[in-house]
Each structure stands twice: as structure tokens, then as C-alpha cells.
Write a structure and sequence with these properties.
The chain has 512 residues and is mainly α. Among the domains are: 102 residues, no CATH class; 150 residues. Helix content is 85%, strand content 0%. The chain contains 13 helices and no strands. It is rod-shaped, with a radius of gyration of 57 Å. This is CH-like domain-containing protein.
Length: 512
């Protein structure tokens, strides 16, 4: 504790290095410098270097030159009483000014400290009368300083609230906001805190303007400081409660992953339905083509069965008439030629469109429609129709095999895509979790830094209280010593009066 206090005092860059707290702060001058560095004292007017600093400066000057040594040795006996009285007067004046300044901050001693001071045997002379004017100036300066501090604390409070609001907005943008603590309630609490702080500052300012400076200083500063500390603690607690927990982050990640999985399942279902409808349509087209081919083959077989009877009848008619055979013979080749041409056209269509089911069905339907209107004239044409039907069947089987292979490849690709998507989801989840953990660590570190600053401010307040206690101890000890001296003088006067009365009585009892 002592080491930390020494380091903190060295960081203030005082007029002389700190060696010992008891000896260096005995005259009160360095303590006034500390208050000035902390902006609790506006100037050093009226403060003088007392016993410890004067002794240190005189010893350092005496160690530099021999002439000063000789002078100090010769004049030490004559000026010892005057130097001690002036140093003691300076110390008492410094402590009186410090007491007035600390009264403005409203720092009091505990009853135990007062009892210890009253039971001590240290003494100091009374303060100089010239310190009254400086005390009044100190009161006015303390009131002004209190008003400045209240305004500065209001500004700092508003700045802290703005920082916390921006912090909440950043959390909500990143999706890490706590659902249990909405931003509206926090903003309302912050607004209420700022309004109460502004009202307290206005009341303190009004009291300082209307009443006495000492009363304003005693009533405003500690209440504002306590309210400020409570507000800072409350804001820190709200900020800590607003931090997203690990469970909430996990739930949020699970919700996002569930939404992604649902969208993926819906997309896969739509793809499967489309492929199933395409397959059903293809099967229906194949069935229609097969039915048309079967009907054509049946018609061709019926025509081939009726052809011998028609040929025999034609031959009989030719034998009977004698002039119809050449025309019938010419008609038969002419009828066979279009059939062969239609078969060749259908073969070309089927060979050129073997990979497309829709084209093959259209070509087969066109060929069947073109040739179904007339009977087959020979067995060769029937054979060609059967061969063409077999080729159509082979093409359909080949198309079905190709489609099965394509479906297998598509299923494999879908599985690969699903695995890749799962890997991406796992990686994204790890990244989100790591980012949330880093953000939580940053927030916790900022909260710890704020708590360290608060501890440092409390340490400063403890140092101020300790210095005030030391000052109060010295002042009360001096007052006690003065009272004791006055009592001793009164007792001596009473004893002298009693002796004089006894002498008078003795003189009266023995006449000359």
C-alpha cells in the first residue's frame, strides 16, 4: 500500500522527491501541491514551506560551501528560537488553509480518530490571524471549483452514456444483443440518471449562489460524488447484464442453421418434384409412342393377311378382262414406292433423334399417321415396319439407360454438394463462435479497465481522507496543547494568588 502511494505521488511530479510520507508531508506544503495537481486547489497562495523543507534546504545549502557552515554554526545559538517559532507558525498556517480547503470537499474525521488526537501529547502554537482572509478566499475558490467539477461530471456522464449507447447499437448490428435487456429500457435508465444528475448539479449551484460558501461546499460535493459513483456502478452492472451469454449465442447460431437447413430442404424438395414430373412425362410419351407403334404393326399385319386374297381376285379379274393387269401392276409399284419413301423418312427421323425422346415420339407419330392411312402392300414393307419398331424400342431403352445414369450422377453430385454445404456450415459456425468469444473478451477487458480506473479513483479518495485525518490530528493536538497551557497558566496564577494571600495573612498575624 505504501509503495503504491509513493509511486502515485511520484507520478504527480511534485516540487521535491518523496522520501518519507511522515516527514515530507509534516508541514502541509506538499499536501497542498497534491491537491493542486488533483484540481482540488486552485492556487498555492498563503502556503509556506515549514520545518521539514526548511531543514532540508538549509542542510543542502550547508553541505555545498564551508562559509555557509561557519555562518550557520555561529548563528545557530542566536536564531534557534526565532526559526523554530517561524517554522511552527508556517506549519500551522498551512494546516489551517488545508483544513479550510478540505472542509469545502466535506471530509470529516471518525470519532476514534478524534479520541486518538485528544489523547496525544503533540502541541503546536495557534495559527496566525492573517490566515482568516486566505480562508475566505479559499471558501470562494472552493465553491467555484465545486461548480466546475459538477459541470465536468455532468459532461463526463453524458459522454459515458453516449459510449454505452453506441456499444449497444454495435451489439445489435452484429446480432449479439441480449434479448433480456432491450435498448429502450437502458436508454430510459440513462436518461433518468442524466436528468437526476443535472437536477443535483442545479440544486448545488443554487445553494452555492444563495447560501454561504461553506454550506454549499458541505452539502453539494459529497452528495454529487456519491451519486456519480452509484450511477457508474449501476451503468456497469447494466452493461455487464447486457452482455450476450454463451447460451444465447449458441441459440442464435442454432436458429440461423435451422433456417438454412429448412431453405435447403425446400430447395431439394422442389428439385426432386421437378425431376419426378419430368420422368412421368417421359414415361407417358414413351407409352404413347409404343401404343402407336403397336397399332401400326397390327394394321400392317392385317393388311398383309388380306393381300393374297386381293391379289388372287385381281389376277382372276385380269384373266377375265385381259387389260387391267398392266394398270394394276403399275399401281402396285407406285403404291409401294411411297411406302418405301415413308419408311426411309421415318428411319432418318428415328436415327437423327435417338437422344431426344420428344423428337422420337413426334417422328414415330408422324410416320404412323402418314402410313396408317393405307395398307401394307408386301411382306418386305411389313418387315421394314417391324425393324423400325424394334429400333424405336432400342432407342427408348437406350434413353432410359442414359436417364438412369444421369439420375445416378445427379444424386452423387447432390450428395457431394450436401457434404460441402455441411462443411461450410460447420466452418461458419466455428467462425461465428470465435468472433463472439473475441467480442466477449474485448467487452470484459473494457469492463475490467473501467473497474481499475474506479479503484484508482477510490485510492485517491482514501489518500485524501488520510491526509485530512493527519491534518485534523495536528490541528486538534495544537488546540489541546493550547488549552493545557492556558490551564497551567491559570493554575500558576491561582497558586501565586494563594501564596500572596498566605503571606498577607502571615504579615497580619505578626504585627511589626
Amino acid at each position: 500500500m505504501t509503495t503504491s502511494i509513493m509511486e502515485w505521488l511520484e507520478s504527480l511530479e511534485l516540487s521535491q522527491p518523496i522520501v518519507c510520507l511522515e516527514t515530507d508531508f509534516a508541514d502541509g506544503y506538499l499536501f497542498a501541491e497534491v491537491l493542486q495537481r488533483l484540481s482540488l486547489l486552485q492556487h498555492m497562495q498563503g502556503f509556506q514551506r515549514g520545518s521539514s523543507s526548511s531543514k532540508r534546504s538549509s542542510s543542502s545549502r550547508g553541505s555545498r560551501t564551508s562559509s555557509s557552515r561557519s555562518r550557520s554554526s555561529t548563528s545557530s545559538s542566536s536564531s534557534s528560537s526565532s526559526s523554530s517559532s517561524s517554522a511552527l507558525t508556517a506549519d500551522v498556517q498551512n494546516f489551517t488553509l488545508l483544513k479550510k480547503a478540505l472542509d469545502l470537499i466535506d471530509i470529516r474525521l471518525s470519532p476514534s480518530a478524534v479520541h486518538n488526537i485528544s489523547s496525544s501529547k503533540l502541541a503546536a502554537p495557534a495559527a496566525a490571524p492573517a490566515a482568516a482572509a486566505a480562508a475566505e478566499d479559499g471558501k470562494r475558490e472552493g465553491v467555484l471549483l465545486q461548480q466546475q467539477q459538477s459541470r465536468g461530471k455532468t459532461k463526463a456522464r453524458s459522454t459515458v452514456l453516449e459510449c454505452i449507447d453506441s456499444f449497444e447499437l454495435n451489439l445489435q448490428r452484429q446480432g449479439l444483443g441480449s434479448p433480456a435487456a432491450p435498448l429502450d429500457s437502458f436508454a430510459a435508465a440513462a436518461a433518468a440518471a442524466s436528468s437526476s444528475a443535472a437536477a443535483a448539479a442545479a440544486a448545488a449551484a443554487g445553494a452555492a449562489g444563495s447560501g454561504s460558501p461553506a454550506a454549499a461546499a458541505a452539502g453539494g460535493c459529497p452528495a454529487a460524488a456519491a451519486a456519480w459513483g452509484e450511477e457508474v456502478e449501476e451503468l456497469l452492472q447494466q452493461m455487464k447484464a447486457r452482455l450476450p451469454s454463451q447460451q444465447s449465442q449458441q441459440e442464435m447460431n442454432n436458429q440461423i442453421m435451422n433456417k438454412l437447413h429448412a431453405a435447403k430442404r425446400a430447395q431439394e424438395t422442389n428439385c426432386y418434384e421437378r425431376s419426378r414430373r419430368r420422368q412421368l412425362l417421359l414415361m407417358e410419351q414413351t407409352k404413347k409412342c409404343r401404343e402407336a407403334l403397336n397399332s401400326r404393326v397390327a394394321a400392317a399385319a392385317a393388311a398383309a393377311a388380306a393381300a393374297p386374297a386381293a391379289a388372287a381376285a385381281a389376277a382372276a379379274g385380269a384373266a377375265a378382262g385381259g387389260g387391267i393387269a398392266p394398270g394394276a401392276a403399275a399401281a402396285a409399284p407406285s403404291a409401294a414406292a411411297p411406302g418405301a419413301a415413308g419408311a426411309a423418312g421415318s428411319n432418318c427421323n428415328s436415327s437423327s433423334n435417338s437422344n431426344s425422346n420428344s423428337n422420337s415420339s413426334s417422328s414415330s407419330s408422324s410416320s404412323s399417321s402418314s402410313s396408317s392411312g393405307r395398307p401394307v402392300s408386301s411382306s418386305s414393307e411389313l418387315q421394314r415396319a417391324v425393324d423400325r419398331a424394334l429400333r424405336y424400342e432400342d432407342v427408348i431403352k437406350c434413353n432410359l439407360a442414359v436417364k438412369e445414369q444421369l439420375m445416378k450422377e445427379k444424386e452423387e453430385k447432390r450428395k457431394e454438394m450436401q457434404q460441402r454445404h455441411e462443411q461450410q456450415q460447420q466452418q461458419q459456425q466455428r467462425i461465428l463462435t470465435a468472433a463472439a468469444v473475441q467480442e466477449r473478451v474485448k467487452i470484459c477487458s473494457s469492463v475490467k479497465a473501467i473497474r481499475r480506473k474506479l479503484k484508482r479513483s477510490r485510492l485517491i479518495a482514501l489518500c485524501e481522507a488520510m491526509a485530512y485525518k493527519i491534518t485534523e490530528i495536528v490541528i486538534n493536538a495544537s488546540q489541546q496543547q493550547q488549552q493545557r497551557q492556558q490551564q497551567q497558566q491559570q493554575q500558576q496564577q491561582q497558586q501565586q494568588q494563594q501564596q500572596q494571600q498566605q503571606q498577607q495573612q502571615l504579615a497580619a498575624s505578626f504585627p511589626p
